[in-house]
Amino acid sequence: MTAHRVASTAARTTATAAAFAGLMSLTALPALAQTAGDDTQYSYKRPSPTTITTFGSLVDLCNTPESSMRYDENHGVCVGYFSGFVDLYLAETPVSSRVVCLPNPPTTRQEARNKFVAWASSHPDMTAQPAAVGVYRFLAATYPCASTAPTVAPPAPLASPAGSATP
To answer: Which domain holds residue 61?
Structure first.
């Protein structure tokens, strides 16, 4: 029984490390390409058309039309980024702390992509943010957990009429 628990823990650790490595491979390379004279926090030169540097660059990849010669490559990078992000989030965030709860049954990749592109187009202020920040905000807004959904505050107590005594 103990050997099984150790193997299970090792498998989870390996899966978490693999997801983290995959996510970092997509996000760490742009930091190497930053120019010395660049003062903006998230401004990088894009070394290749599929490098994700900001939320806007991820949206561009995910929004590639099917008629494009780069559709398969860009769609794969888009889906891969999301898969890595979600895998890492699920692996590292305790269930009781999650604000993102994916639907069951899950949406298709195409449905999720369409929702993402629509959400991104209505949030142009996110374009220059890091891609992970935009993805997290999209997921939290689109797939909130019931316990973290916004609640309506109770109405304020009625004020007593002027001159009346309150108990």
So the answer is: 2-32+47-148
